[in-house]
Design goal:
mainly alpha; 2 domains; 4 helices; elongated; transmembrane; membrane; Iron_permease_Fet4; Low affinity iron permease family protein
Length: about 140
């Protein structure tokens, strides 16, 4: 098993595990136990360091898990959208893989579709339908 597959499987597992309500409840329980233990440790620096270090490590790891999960979900959604564009009659295939374009190219597409939306709203105000292709 290569490292990419291992990492992907690991992040899927951690994301699923940390998204459960039981994991949230366990986190709250650990914080309560830490708070209750404060007087026994006289609220020492070590007592505070334990929670600070733990939460910092967990947060650091979760940033990568969340980013990996978000990247994978976004890429899967983009592929699904590309397929919907590809199979839709009259759709513009130039919109396939749009997320790979430069920002100014995406802005040009966005402005084009904003103009189409404005024309559709004007057509609705005149009592027309807006479900037709509005390309010039």
């Amino acid at each position: 098993m290569n490292s990419h597959t291992w990492y992907s499987q690991f992040t899927k597992y951690i994301a699923k595990l940390t998204g459960k309500s039981a994991t949230f409840a366990l986190s709250i329980l650990l914080i309560v136990v830490w708070l209750v233990s404060g007087p026994f440790f006289h609220y020492s620096d070590t007592w505070q360091l334990a929670i600070n270090t733990s939460t910092t490590i967990i947060t650091f790891i979760m940033v990568f898990v969340i980013q990996n999960t978000q990247n994978r979900d976004t890429e899967a959604m983009q592929v699904k959208l590309d397929e919907l564009i590809r199979v839709t009659k009259g759709a513009h295939n130039a919109l396939l893989d749009l997320e790979e374009l430069e920002e100014d190219q995406i802005d040009a597409f966005r402005k084009h579709y904003e103009m189409l939306a404005q024309k559709a709203r004007q057509a609705l105000q005149k009592g027309n339908i807006d479900t037709d292709t509005l390309d010039e």
